[in-house]
Protein 1
Amino acid sequence: MPILLFLLDTSASMNQRTYLGTTYLDVAKGAVEVFMKLRARDPASRGDRYMLVTFDDPPYGVKAGWKENHATFMCELKNLQASGLTTLGHALRTAFDLLNLNRLVSGIDNYGQGRNPFYLEPAVIITITDGNKLTHSSGVPDELHLPLHSPLVGSELTKEPFRWDQRLFALVLRLPGATRPDNEQLGSVPTDDSAITQMCEVTGGRSYCVRTQRMLNQCLESLVQKVQSGVVINFEKTGPDPPLVGEDNSVELNRAVPDFNLQPWQSCHKLIYVRPNPKTGVPIGHWPIPESFWPDQNTPTLPPRAAHPVVRFSCVDCEPMVIDKLPFDKYELEPSPLTQFILERKSPHSCWQVFVSSSMKQNDLGQPFGYLKASTTLTCVNLFVMPYNYPVLLPLLDDLFKVHKLKPNVKWRQAFEIYLKTMPPYYLMPLKKALRMMGAPNLIAENMDCGLSYSVISYLKKLSQQVSGTCRCFSLMFSTLVLCSRT
């Protein structure tokens, strides 16, 4: 169920008129309505949730949040007026806080227990602004700054105000006021040179420099395609580059480098698509992406988590590993220089292992938790997520079924115990579930724990209760504000 949050610039400069005869705010309102009509063509839009936030001071900037229906959203959109300052930073913080309001209650972020791509709440934030100078009651800042401190409890658990399933896009209106532009730009719409662009790129989104109505319509068509269920990951190469591969799959050390190789394939910041189950409409998964630290029962607090995990890939060709009945997760990567580079190598029968640094007790690269692999048809690249250190576990499980017939000897049990001690403890529950599905339910002792200290578990429970109370108070306060604004 995607969340579509519109953040509309309601500063005084949005009253300026365009060559269309309407104000920038009128154009922004019309863009929202057109987007909603385009989105409604997709049957998947039936589960969409719409929110509306403006540049008004908190909490007045939230015009339609978690509790408001479609009719309230449209009424609030219609009644928007432009006045005040261009407080983009504070408005963005309000938008992210609104999206994050229920996450601690639901436990969707699973702090300290691995990151589950299949447990997500995808959100697209669409900001519509005229891109004018940022203004604040204390002056005119040169750069976009989001307030560091949030009133939302638990916000200190993530370094950034956004999460890996939230992407920011911006329509920056640059429509002239006097005459219609003579030469409309064809093709892709360029990014805008404004304060919000960098913030968009950090979240895995982008900005659009809109100069005509035709370009605006083109951008809206593009944005509708961006409503995807997925999470953003930083993919970074570790170790040496791979040797070049010729057309016949032979290694070529001196072949000319193609143009795409000049692009930053070694470091990509892209989405992985998390497809919902066709029958239930809900994604299904089994294995987490590791945390970048080892859970310690003696540590009273959790280290703050980066919004986007850094997944490192090694360019050493390996053989893809799977065994019968052991579940694995497969996610398609958004097209990027990295996917293009892998596909051009035309090696669908080999893979590159992936790691998360510091996921083991030792502060190093850690053990592989999956691999990147081109599809057999060479049409896309997939991230396979497996049990942690799967090159050790899979042969053990294969022997368990094929050699020992589910009656392991002492040597096998010792090897399995050693594996369990080097695996992050939050993999115990999904591994127990997988073994139960495979027909081996009693291999792991019931008294093994998740690795978090009692104080951390208590703190997370306390936060969940506090946020639940905050949600109720916020809903009551907002309902009062809406009632007052209509009387």
Protein 2
Amino acid sequence: MHTDSIYCVFQSNSTSPAKFTGVLPSSRSKFFKRSIPNNLRDLKSIHPPILSTSPEDYYLSSDESLKEKVFSWNSSMCYDSFSTEEDVILFVKGANKNHLAINRSPTELKCLFSNGVNTVITSVTSSSQEVFRCLHPSETEIHGLGDEKIRVALQLNDSVIPSVAYYRPLARNLIHPEKKQLCASTMVHNVSKFLREWVIFHSRLGIDKFVFYDNGSEDGLQDVVNKLTGDYNIDIEVIFWPWPKTQEAGFSHSAIRSRESCTWMMYTDVDEFVFSPKWVNSLEPSSGMLKSLLPINISTLPSQKIGQVMIFCYEFGPSDQKVHPVEGVTQGYTCRSRKLNRHKSIVLLDAIDTSLFNVIHHFELKDGYQSKKVISRDAVVNHYKYQAWSEFQAKFKRRVSAYVADWTDPVNPMSKDRTPDLGFEPVEPKDWGERFCEVQDMGLKMLAQKWFGLVSSEGHIMVWQDA
């Protein structure tokens, strides 16, 4: 079925255009977005629509889909799975209370593998946040389920959580590519205009591969990625991850999925740039700069093995910018708060605890590993958090990836994710341009100009402006 002109035909033969959005990583199923027709929105239950190439098709009452209901993201749902050699990792919304840090015991849970007729049940071995680890069915049990698509779900006591996740046995890959030493993974949503600067900068400093979890971007992400891979030969992988408010789960997925291809993984956002004062005298960037922050030999002292490097952040303010600076955020925003804030991390993937538990940008580690805090004279993260007002509004409206309330929603007013003294009204404060400005910090601006500045007929531009 071609994806150019697809319609969803609902009960009562109401139709809605369906937009192809991506391919789900586990089942390889195509993912479509569509709006619910206005005349159906007040119904207590809506049955799954059928996909059609014509809005003239009829929704027959005898259709098998009438036996089900449309799943709501506002309720519990099994939404993805991933198979390892040891087990099956199931991603489930609503089974644990993440905001209260309450996780159910694995003994309360079972994993169900079903082809719609027959079901195989296995034990759950780990329950943390939205990540549940289940035992594989045996080869005999899988054979009994046949060649049909096998849906995997989580059973809680006597109830089964609805599922759109499918089981795929681990593919046996006899050829293992050489591991990249240092990769970077982040979740992105409509940040394409920031991407060139962030990728080019960090690739020149030593990131060997970028793994982007695309949270439903609609701003030409793939076009930007294609140009970066084609023009600069940068290794970039895009994983379609449409699930709202699941950044921790996405990072867990990234950590386990990339374990065979990457040794260390850097977790920062695309408005965060690693900077070391020790680099300012370097005439050009080198691929060893970021790697120099990693421990030299992780196995020298087993009782003191470093599994995570934590780098603290300086938060930059609007710096009197009225719009997004065309030369990039490192050039446009130069005024910051004095105090160091939250940290971001570079993690040894083999050191991550089997629960895959993480609080955004750092992980729980296995016994025998510890985290190392980097002092500010060795490295910091420049976090361009509070930008020009129009960008600030867009950023906090697109925070679909993390479990953080929109800044106009008066929920959890003491959260560190709140903008200090902003309130909840979507009105630009008169002094917005001067806020969060305690220190003029030109360090990264001048260094980036030296490394990435170009002289053109239009004057001095940055390499990432050359689109």
